[in-house]
Amino acid sequence: MTVVAVTGGTGAPGVTSTALALLLTWPLPAGRRVILIEADPDGGSILAGALQGRVSAEYGLHQLGVAHRQGNLVDAFFRQLVDLSDGRRERLLLPGLVDPTQASGLAYTWDPISQLAAGLGNQQIPHDVIIDLGRRGTTGASAIAARRADLVLPLVRGTLPSLAQAQPRLASLRNDLDTHGTGSDSIALVVIEEGRYARQEIGKHLEAPVLGLLPFDPERARVLSHGEGDTGKRFLRSKFMRAARTTAEAALALANQRRMRLAPRPAPGGELPSGPDAPMPGDGWAQAAAYIRRPSESRPEVEPAHRPAGEEAGHVR
Predict the structure, then answer these.
(1) SS3 of residue 105 by DSSP
(2) Rounded-to-integer distance, Cα 256 and Cα 236, Å
(3) Beta bridge partners of residue 192, listed in sequence order
(4) What's the farthest any 2 CA atoms get from each other in the chain?
(5) DSSP letters spanning 26-69
(6) Is this model's pTM higher than 0.85 or not?
(7) Beta bridge partners of 215
(8) What is the pLDDT of residues 108-160, one digit of tens each?
(9) Helix 239-262 / helix 218-226 crossing angle, nearest 10 deg
(10) Where does residue 163 rank: exposed (0-12), middle (13-18), buried (19+ CB within 10 A)?
């Protein structure tokens, strides 16, 4: 199971569009699923953008604060997911906040959400998780999601203003992950190929490896940010989406390598030591497993109301 956090900063390219591209191209072996959590504290944009308002704004991240206080976080989490894979529940979206002021209501919920994300690979149907932290999500209460992630993927452009703005932000992020997370070696850059600086120069300047390159393609990016343009097979086979798939594959491989290296050794009795990343016992895990296993025809009838109907797998329209 892999948890990847995507983040940006002032002058950065579209974090949400990139996270959505990763969701739609994420490698999924049989029996595996992937979830995109739109966790930008400044508010989500996929419902009004890529989905063009076809999904009710009542669904999303803002529902989880109340659910957590009521002790029903896990069940509520799965009931808020929007299926973007034509009913197969393979590529799922947890929409973001509809109002930035709702972020304060999640102040004590980010930690349980990040624990939940880290434990989704232990379920009968394992899930990988992509977390869109937007421009400010690696600071404040939501920073715990980056600290617990297997990889943190900052986005930058190959332009001087973007690199200049990214440098102090990455220094702060590096320090935070070394102090409070699993280490700054979780940072790997995703570069939008705009500007004159090459991959090697960017990695050297920002002191971080470049994981992937995405072509500067405003037309394809607008499909993901605004839901406009061709969303069919031609879009999925575009250079932009092929690059997103290559980046997703690289992220998955690097996260697996890093997780194996950091895996705790069994304690003297054969049991793994407990810690802050251990699953939350008694907080609805049995309920979540039952919900995942439940056949589609026995699920609550609320699902068709918030799943874009009649779309092919991977389409956003």
Answers:
(1) helix
(2) 26
(3) 157, 214
(4) 58
(5) ----TT-EEEEEE--TT---TTTTTTTT-S-TTSSTTHHHHHHH
(6) no
(7) 193
(8) 999 999 999 988 877 778 899 999 999 989 999 999 999 999 999 999 999 99
(9) 70
(10) buried
